[in-house]
Design brief:
Helices cover 11% and strands 41% of the residues. With 196 residues, the protein is mostly beta strands. A hairpin with a 6-residue loop joins strand 6 and strand 7.
Length: 196
């Protein structure tokens, strides 16, 4: 066996095709950490698998989940991104709610290596409208797959990233009347006149 053939054979057995060059500077993708929106100017509350997230009354009526992300590994100069939120039945893959919009990103205070939405407004986080619930699965109680995706905008080589958490949802408990309305409107198969 010639020296060249021997080298090619060795390279092949090392899972490297002879003459093939490994990719250089491939985008690694964004790293996302999901968080629950807690109010204007307040930090996002980290979301972990198994958490129960409180839904909130929406300004336009009904009940909504406000969630955002913190992101690392982003492209230099990134200021805007598309944020996509979905709530999915983990057993069937059916979507309960989804929405997408453009957000403004700003450095996390004290950590310029991490960006997050401008937290002065709910318009800068994902607004997943959940109730009244006209679908066939209760919103409150079962486990859900919360999926968040971000796509960079206005940069030369846009990157994307996504993150998923398995969570449950709960109604606010501070006001018994609001809790009652929330639980009724978030039960499956809502119809007008169903709730007191």
């Amino acid at each position: 066996m010639s020296r060249t053939a021997a080298l090619c054979w060795f390279a092949a057995t090392s899972v490297l095709a002879c003459g093939h060059k490994p990719p250089v500077n491939q985008p690694k993708g964004l790293s996302l950490s999901p968080g629950l929106y807690q109010g204007a100017g307040q930090p996002l509350k980290p979301i972990n698998d198994g958490d129960t997230l409180q839904i909130e009354s929406a300004p336009q009526g009904g009940w909504v989940l406000f969630v955002g992300v913190q992101v690392t590994g982003f492209s230099p100069g990134l200021q805007h991104a598309q944020l996509i939120g979905r709530l999915v039945d983990p057993d069937t893959g059916a979507s309960q709610a989804d929405e997408s919009h453009t957000i403004v990103l700003t450095p996390v205070p004290g950590d310029p290596s991490t960006l997050q939405p401008e937290l002065r407004s709910i318009s800068q986080v994902s607004n997943l409208v959940l109730c009244p619930n006209y679908k066939t699965r209760d919103v409150v109680g079962p486990e859900w797959s919360l999926e968040l995706e971000m796509n960079e905008l206005d940069v030369s080589a846009p990157q994307s990233g996504s993150v998923t958490r398995l969570v449950a949802l709960g109604c606010p408990t501070q006001d018994p009347r609001a809790q009652q309305v929330c639980e009724c409107q978030c039960a499956a198969n809502f119809m007008p006149g169903k709730c007191p």
